[in-house]
Amino acid sequence: MTNSNPSKKVENHGVAWERAFGYVQAVQVKDTIYVSGQLSHDDDGNLVAPAELDEDKRPADFSQMESQIRQSYVNAKTLLARYGATLDDVVEETLYVLDVPSAFVAGSKVRKEMYGTDVPQCASNLIGVSALAFPEQIVEIAFRAVINRPAD
User: Fold this and answer.
1) At what angle do helices 65-81 and 100-115 cross, to 10 degrees?
2) Residue (of 137, 123, 127) closest to 65 by Cα position
3) pLDDT tens digits for 63-87?
4) 143: which strand partners?
5) pTM attached to this predicted model
């Protein structure tokens, strides 16, 4: 991808919706990395653990919340690694979810697993929303990380 601002370092996963919507997955400016909302897709852009839909094309239940949260963190870790960063560098995260109660239970477990501690050292927001980009998607997670080195 062509970067018109050399003071920004950008990264993508290479999935179709990056070009369709017109955005990058992550951008570093100085010592801060901003990671766009991550969802549970694989390397080919297929949704991992898609929610089953009802007749109105809405999630029938939220039993896939844990799997979707876990894959969203995996995708964020992939992007952060490209900057030499890890989840230890994350200072803020925001989980956008279709069902807060199931996300609270699943997120509590997965966050501790991903960060490797019972109390991850970052500010965290859990926000209920009415819809996300794809009908089978029930969670999206955005991150902000700060590292001790400037962009290349």
Assistant:
1) 40
2) 137
3) 999 999 999 999 999 999 999 999 9
4) 35, 93
5) 0.92
